[in-house]
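EI: anyone free to look at a 85-residue chain?
SC: sure, send it
EI:
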Amino acid sequence: MSVLHNWDEWKNFLGDRLNQAKDAGLDQNVITDLAYQIGDYLANQVDPKNEQERVLSDLWSVADEQEQQAIANIMVKLVQNNSSK
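SC: here you go
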């Protein structure tokens, strides 16, 4: 099963990648920009696999670029908070 099928697995996967990025020395702005690029790719190329991803996809589709940046930033904060617990 793909990490995209389970919301908690997806958040854990993102948290692991976030920690790897920090360990590699990437700063917060670069991480947030990467999150935006990943979010844009997922919204345009990947069919949501669960309810949470569908909500994010729907929000992304109606958001302007600034709002999409905010969504990406919030997702980074979400996985940071989950990985620190």
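EI: The longest helix spans residues 65-83.
SC: 👍
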